[in-house]
Design a protein that fits this description.
By secondary structure, the chain is mostly beta strands. It has a domain of about 200 residues. It is built from two helices and 43 strands. The strands form two sheets. It has a 26-stranded antiparallel β-barrel. It has a six-stranded antiparallel β-barrel with strand order 4-5-8-9-7-6. The protein is elongated and about 115 Å long. It starts with a helix and ends in a 19-residue tail after the last strand. About 20% of the residues are buried. The N terminus is likely disordered.
């Protein structure tokens, strides 16, 4: 009852107090209501002085002042806080101080022994600061850092010392005067004037994290990006790159977001180049997407380079990419239909390819629609397609086709799954000045029929489920060879995903012929604890060898090679997959292995590839290589990474990369080493050492949860 009476007295006193507090400001329409809560309040009407003590809090708009004792002088309109206090401004700024003298609305005043914490990231310590118009904080003799400063760690990794700092709360900017950046207590940089965004800013123009590198081909290099905000929905980043061996280039990255789409463009060009005698070398890459009316999507992209080696010389984009594709596509996707219209052009960076022999696709059309078959049951499909290819010298290739297909599934009482499939494909070709053909017209009609039988069998032993499924697919097509030119069905790959394909050629210009049987069996083991195992083995049997496939594909002859897949996985911790092609004598023509392991601190992945020549058309040599990648997080601060790729044909390494990263609450340091050993084609053997140092606390860079603030300067 005593506490209740005290609270009533406080509330009554507050009513009298704020009636007087707001009298002097009643004529100001913009004045905001102020509330005060305290355990004890006393007011002297003669002197106009109010004393509040015990859990004192003042609420003014989005600000809250908390202290143990407060004195308000009504006549001066002044609040005096003689002891420690905390001011919380909105959700982002917290000020702790030893004492303060403020006006009644907390917009102006002097705060002594202050620590300002912005967005739980950047803290600024000052002997005193003046607060002006509720917008500016003017701090003197300051130290700013986003690092933890504790008794055990009195010197932060980095700090900025300056004579004066102005914090503009409206523009969310920090202005430093006579600023010195110290790293581990050692001065490394001085600036008479320095402007940076505070941590609450999402986007602000200014310098980004620089990068230093050392390369045997370019020398020591420095990349210094500058970011420009271009309104609310666009930005531009310019990055000069300077190297000690005489190269100088500029990268420009432009991005813009529209109401129904976006675009992004990257360009690189040299102002000086130490690797060639060219005056200017350049490249461009860009892409965009827009949603047009009637559910139509527009995708487009551009990739081009002034010469074959430019992107690899300067490690631009995916510098291992050996073909650059420019394209534009209109598409519409609905529940039972899809249509697209596209054009594309490829610039080859391969030394054994000539750009003039690579066609311009102008245009390519594809559409497919499906219906439920109300007469025979199942599903009907209709596919329409056409393409025009243009090359130098008046070389033209035109194809148009229409495919009709039907499919139906049955489940018999004994559990046998039966599928029937039928297709009729009709294609027309027109060529002009085509190599080996000249001007000609072709018309092909190819029917296909198939029956598919599957018998899934399952058995549960304890908590483990075993599923085995034998499958046989009978497919028929005419034996007659097609005479039309082949543009899109040169490469053929045989693996478990294509074992039961009606046609293993990827495009429309060729199709699998003759009668054949695709047979196979799969076994899967499911365990509730997360361990799963799968095995698939199969083969293609033909009535006649029509000579459609080369020996390297594994599909040649009346009996193909055996295709197999073996996989073992445990949740997201372990994943092993092996794919093989082998003949009846177990001679391998293809062997691919992938292994991924994810432990608490260690993540590893490895691949092994053995491909006999011509497994993919155009591969004239055997491919035998392995790669390994690993990342190890030693603790919350240190992590290590490594990648290695080895060519067993040449018995030499191909490439390697190593990384060392240190990250804490206020800094991220990345040290990297990149090695390129093989200098075949357009790739130069290179060794590059890179270093980036990123300071947290500037701009809206979210702090890692591992480094939540544990201690402060005060």
């Amino acid at each position: 009852m005593k506490r209740l009476a005290s609270a009533c007295l406080v509330a009554l006193t507050l009513v009298v107090l704020f009636a007087q507090l707001t009298t002097a400001r009643a004529e100001a329409a913009s004045a905001k209501r102020i509330s005060l809560v305290a355990d004890q309040v006393s007011f002297d009407p003669a002197s106009g002085v109010l004393n509040a003590s015990g859990n004192v809090q003042i609420f003014q708009g989005s600000q809250i002042l908390s202290t143990e004792r407060l004195i308000y002088d009504q006549r001066k309109g002044q609040i005096t806080v003689p002891g420690p206090l905390t001011i919380v401004s909105g959700k982002d700024v917290t000020t702790r101080a030893q004492s303060a003298v403020l006006d009644a609305d907390l917009k102006n005043g002097l705060i002594r022994g202050a620590e300002v914490l912005i967005a739980q990231q950047l803290q600024i310590v000052s002997d005193e600061f003046h607060r002006t118009d509720g917008r500016f904080k003017v701090l003197t003799k300051t130290v700013a850092s986003s690092c933890h400063v504790c008794a055990k760690n009195p010197i932060p990794f980095w700090q900025i010392r300056s004579q004066r700092v102005i914090h503009d709360e409206l523009e969310r900017r920090l202005y430093f005067e006579n600023a010195t950046l110290q790293v581990l207590g050692v001065p490394v940089f001085y600036a008479p004037k320095l402007r940076i965004p505070d941590p609450t800013v999402d986007r602000a123009s200014g310098f980004l994290v620089p990068r230093l590198s050392n390369s045997n081909t370019l020398g020591i290099g420095a990349e210094i990006p500058y970011y420009f905000t271009l309104g609310d929905h666009a930005d531009l980043t310019l990055t000069p790159e300077i190297y000690t061996k005489g190269s100088f280039l500029i990268n420009a990255n432009y991005r813009k977001q529209f109401r129904r789409g976006w675009i992004e463009v990257n360009t690189d060009f040299t102002l000086a180049d130490s690797l060639t005698t060219r005056s200017i070398r350049s490249s461009i890459s860009g892409e965009g997407r827009f949603l047009l009316p009637n559910e139509i999507e527009l995708d487009f992209g551009i990739e081009a380079a002034s010469d074959d080696a430019f992107r690899t010389d300067y490690q631009i984009g995916d510098h291992e990419q050996d073909r650059l594709t420019s394209y534009a596509t209109l598409r519409r996707t609905r529940k039972n239909s899809y249509a697209s219209l596209s054009t594309s052009y490829i610039q080859s960076l391969r030394t054994n390819e000539v750009d003039t022999q690579i066609p311009l696709v102008l245009p390519e059309f594809y559409a497919r629609k499906t219906w439920a078959d109300k007469v025979f049951g199942g599903k009907l499909g209709l596919t329409a397609q056409s393409v025009t290819l243009l090359r130098d010298g008046g070389n033209k290739f035109f194809r148009a086709g229409l495919n009709v297909d039907w499919q139906r599934d049955w489940t018999l009482k004994n559990g046998l799954l039966v599928s029937a499939y039928g297709e009729l494909a009709n294609t027309v070709y027109v060529t002009d000045n085509y190599p080996g053909i000249g001007r000609a017209e072709f018309n092909n009609s190819v029917p296909t029929a198939a029956l598919d039988f599957r018998l899934p069998l399952s058995r549960q032993i304890g908590k483990v489920t075993h599923v085995i499924e034998p499958r046989i697919q009978l497919v028929w097509s005419p034996k007659d060879a097609r005479t039309n030119p082949n543009e899109d069905s040169v490469q053929v790959e045989f693996e478990e995903n294509s074992l039961f394909a009606h046609n293993r050629f990827p495009g429309f210009d060729n199709s699998e012929r003759g009668a054949r049987a695709n047979i196979g069996v799969s076994y899967t083991r499911y365990e509730p604890s997360g361990w799963n195992l799968g095995v698939t083995v199969g083969q293609v049997l033909r009535f006649d060898d029509l000579g459609q496939f080369s020996t390297g594909t594994g599909l040649d002859g009346t009996n193909s090679d055996f295709v197999s897949t073996f996989s073992v996985s445990y949740k997201d911790k372990f994943d092993f997959v092996n794919r093989m092609l082998f003949d009846r004598n177990f001679n391998l023509s293809k062997n691919e292995t992938q292994l991924t392991m994810n432990f608490n601190r260690l993540t590893t992945s490895g691949t092994y590839v053995w491909l006999e020549k011509d497994v993919v058309a155009g591969a004239s040599d055997n491919r035998h290589e392995a790669s390994l990648a690993a990342t190890y997080r030693h603790n919350d601060y240190w992590s290590y990474s490594a990648e290695w790729r080895h060519n067993f044909v040449t018995q030499r390494p191909t490439s390697g990369a190593f990384g060392l990263k240190y990250e804490n609450e206020c800094v991220a340091v990345n040290l990297s080493l990149s090695l390129q050993f093989e200098g075949s084609g357009i790739v130069r053997p290179t060794k590059e050492l890179g270093l980036t140092v990123e300071l947290a606390g500037f701009g809206n860079k979210k702090r890692n949860k591992r480094y939540a603030r544990k201690c402060s300067v005060l």
